[in-house]
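ARCHIVE CARD
SHELF: 3
SLOT: left
DATA:
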Amino acid sequence: MASRVAGAAVLWVVWGYNSLVAVRRRTQNAWAEMDVQLKRRHDLIPNLVATVKGIAAQEVTVFTAVANARANLMNARNPKDKIAANQQVKPRVAGFRSRSLQG
């Protein structure tokens, strides 16, 4: 009887140790996955910066075009010049609106 109790105790200790090892491995795997995700995020930062720079450059171009078209409209003196300037403003404002609605 005592040997059965001792055997059961040994099995329980072995099972407990194996359970602790399994928990440690799962924890290490979880941290490794976190490291992988953080590395991926770190690797994407240069792409994000390049995208933002490209969009910023495009916005500067759009804002400049809209401002120039508006200035031409405000500086137009006769009706013919005002009509021509207005024809320049319309597509630029429409492009500005569509880009601002996309973002």
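SLOT: right
DATA:
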Amino acid sequence: MEIKKLLGDNIIIEPESVERVNEHGLEIPDSGQNESNTGFIRVMGEGRKIIGEHRRHPFYVNLGDRVIYNSFAGETIGFDGNDNCRMLAEEDILAVLED
């Protein structure tokens, strides 16, 4: 999917990959895996418009930040060759993680 421009405070996150092998070397099937709710910010909109003013509210996150997000929020989309990216609003990001 080709995205021309994100609107408002929407953000695209590329989820971190989930380990498919446990600590004992056994492969975990897809049905037994928990979906990751951490990832990296890849694309950001322009920010939420402030009503009555001609400016936008700045983001609290930056491109490339590693974040924890609400796993039930947003939509799963295909982006840049990855079919598991998430598009969600900034308010659905719960924390920014340190490297």
